[in-house]
Amino acid sequence: MRTALSLAVRGLGRTWPNPAVGCVLVRDGAVIGRGWTQPGGRPHAETEALAQARSFSGGAEGATAYVTLEPCNHYGKTPPCALALVEAKVARVVVACQDPDPRVAGGGLTRLRDAGIAVTTGVCEAEALALNEGFFNRITLGRPLVTLKVASTLDGRIATATGESQWITGPTARAWGHRLRASHDTILVGIGTALADDPELTCRLPGLEDRSPVRVVVDSSLRLPPTARLATGARRIPTWIVTGPSPDSALAESLTALGVEVIPVAATADGRVDPAAAMAALASRGITRMLVEGGAALAGALLGAGLVDRLEWFRAASLIGGDGLPAVAGFGVEALAAMARFERTTVRSAGTDLAESYRRIAP
Ligand code: AOF
Ligand code: ZN
């Protein structure tokens, strides 16, 4: 199952709207098939593994299938994976976790058991749930998994008072940041960051150049100029703009003409895009994993709405002090009881910087 999980990881960032699943077929102590969900979500992991097993005599007959998610039970572009496993005559299926998709939801396991296949569930379940937390969030909460990435000084500053910000962390942390992009479906930035930095928001690691996620700008009053790199490059790498309910139609048209998708959503009383509405709109387009890269206002708005699930915090061994720009704008915390609280899952050295990962525990 651990092998299947490591295969599944390969799909992260590319399988949306589907989960990233891994499958290993074993017979007589030998691996006869390995598969993982392919870009765009199809073929499924089981299809890939079963295709490999076909080159062995007897195919997958009598084999054990280790799958990180309950095999599907619905007809899509291909018949259900549960049916494919039955037809291949596997003897046993070991599953890490159930699929909450209402089209599956236990039906895949029932189909296998009804065919006389031995089924074991819950193997490495916690790992599998964490791996596909984005997909589970999309199905059960109607929003993606939201990971906030920050590169700051020790005192949590991301720029000096004059706005100088390049570079606070070193090349290793920056490379890790690009690798994070590759495993996400979208990168989200606020319009302030888009205007100030004119960023490309692509994955520029050798070998991973084709792993750039959809770029999303939260732009409440539609201000992104058609000359911005995010707009001019929209045909190469998709750019979406989440904006208020009635954007300027001339600007919206000129952006759309460049291939940018303009997505109007509900606004809050102060005229800003409602964070929950933005997340719902992205999930309904199939987004499961979102990496938020700033700036401070967007980070504060998402934290204030309780929408940040994970933090990836790169911390340089330097200090700017109180005149610097904080990584997170105020989000209304008056009592300590109202703090956004996280637990640390890993901490590593990234060159001269520290890379800390956290998962939200409250609110
Ligand atoms: C599997 N193996 O590798 C994946 C599964 O749109 P479709 O027809 O491709 O179906 C998508 C659903 O299939 C998705 O919501 C989830 O329930 C399941 N994903 N299932 O057996 C896989 N990726
Ligand atoms: Zn399937």
UniProtKB/TrEMBL annotation:
<keyword id="KW-0560">Oxidoreductase</keyword>
<keyword id="KW-0378">Hydrolase</keyword>
<feature type="binding site">
    <location>
        <position position="151"/>
    </location>
    <ligand>
        <name>NADP(+)</name>
    </ligand>
</feature>
<dbReference type="Pfam" id="PF00383">
    <property type="entry name" value="dCMP_cyt_deam_1"/>
</dbReference>
<dbReference type="GO" id="GO:0008835">
    <property type="term" value="F:diaminohydroxyphosphoribosylaminopyrimidine deaminase activity"/>
</dbReference>
<feature type="binding site">
    <location>
        <position position="193"/>
    </location>
    <ligand>
        <name>NADP(+)</name>
    </ligand>
</feature>
<keyword id="KW-0479">Metal-binding</keyword>
<keyword id="KW-0862">Zinc</keyword>
<feature type="binding site">
    <location>
        <position position="167"/>
    </location>
    <ligand>
        <name>substrate</name>
    </ligand>
</feature>
<protein>
    <recommendedName>
        <fullName>Riboflavin biosynthesis protein RibD</fullName>
        <ecNumber>3.5.4.26</ecNumber>
        <ecNumber>1.1.1.193</ecNumber>
    </recommendedName>
</protein>
<feature type="binding site">
    <location>
        <position position="197"/>
    </location>
    <ligand>
        <name>NADP(+)</name>
    </ligand>
</feature>
<keyword id="KW-0521">NADP</keyword>
<feature type="active site" description="Proton donor">
    <location>
        <position position="46"/>
    </location>
</feature>
<dbReference type="InterPro" id="IPR004794">
    <property type="entry name" value="Eubact_RibD"/>
</dbReference>
<comment type="function">
    <text>Converts 2,5-diamino-6-(ribosylamino)-4(3h)-pyrimidinone 5'-phosphate into 5-amino-6-(ribosylamino)-2,4(1h,3h)-pyrimidinedione 5'-phosphate.</text>
</comment>
<feature type="binding site">
    <location>
        <position position="165"/>
    </location>
    <ligand>
        <name>substrate</name>
    </ligand>
</feature>
<feature type="domain" description="CMP/dCMP-type deaminase">
    <location>
        <begin position="1"/>
        <end position="120"/>
    </location>
</feature>
<dbReference type="InterPro" id="IPR002125">
    <property type="entry name" value="CMP_dCMP_dom"/>
</dbReference>
<dbReference type="InterPro" id="IPR016193">
    <property type="entry name" value="Cytidine_deaminase-like"/>
</dbReference>
<keyword id="KW-0686">Riboflavin biosynthesis</keyword>
<dbReference type="GO" id="GO:0008703">
    <property type="term" value="F:5-amino-6-(5-phosphoribosylamino)uracil reductase activity"/>
</dbReference>
<dbReference type="Pfam" id="PF01872">
    <property type="entry name" value="RibD_C"/>
</dbReference>
<feature type="binding site">
    <location>
        <position position="72"/>
    </location>
    <ligand>
        <name>Zn(2+)</name>
    </ligand>
</feature>
<dbReference type="InterPro" id="IPR050765">
    <property type="entry name" value="Riboflavin_Biosynth_HTPR"/>
</dbReference>
<feature type="binding site">
    <location>
        <position position="201"/>
    </location>
    <ligand>
        <name>substrate</name>
    </ligand>
</feature>
<comment type="similarity">
    <text>In the C-terminal section; belongs to the HTP reductase family.</text>
</comment>
<keyword id="KW-0511">Multifunctional enzyme</keyword>
<feature type="binding site">
    <location>
        <position position="81"/>
    </location>
    <ligand>
        <name>Zn(2+)</name>
    </ligand>
</feature>
<feature type="binding site">
    <location>
        <position position="220"/>
    </location>
    <ligand>
        <name>NADP(+)</name>
    </ligand>
</feature>
<feature type="binding site">
    <location>
        <position position="181"/>
    </location>
    <ligand>
        <name>substrate</name>
    </ligand>
</feature>
<comment type="similarity">
    <text>In the N-terminal section; belongs to the cytidine and deoxycytidylate deaminase family.</text>
</comment>
<feature type="binding site">
    <location>
        <begin position="295"/>
        <end position="301"/>
    </location>
    <ligand>
        <name>NADP(+)</name>
    </ligand>
</feature>
<dbReference type="GO" id="GO:0050661">
    <property type="term" value="F:NADP binding"/>
</dbReference>
<comment type="pathway">
    <text>Cofactor biosynthesis; riboflavin biosynthesis; 5-amino-6-(D-ribitylamino)uracil from GTP: step 3/4.</text>
</comment>
<dbReference type="GO" id="GO:0009231">
    <property type="term" value="P:riboflavin biosynthetic process"/>
</dbReference>
<dbReference type="InterPro" id="IPR016192">
    <property type="entry name" value="APOBEC/CMP_deaminase_Zn-bd"/>
</dbReference>
<dbReference type="InterPro" id="IPR002734">
    <property type="entry name" value="RibDG_C"/>
</dbReference>
<dbReference type="GO" id="GO:0008270">
    <property type="term" value="F:zinc ion binding"/>
</dbReference>
<dbReference type="InterPro" id="IPR011549">
    <property type="entry name" value="RibD_C"/>
</dbReference>
<feature type="binding site">
    <location>
        <position position="293"/>
    </location>
    <ligand>
        <name>substrate</name>
    </ligand>
</feature>
<dbReference type="InterPro" id="IPR024072">
    <property type="entry name" value="DHFR-like_dom_sf"/>
</dbReference>
<feature type="binding site">
    <location>
        <position position="44"/>
    </location>
    <ligand>
        <name>Zn(2+)</name>
    </ligand>
</feature>
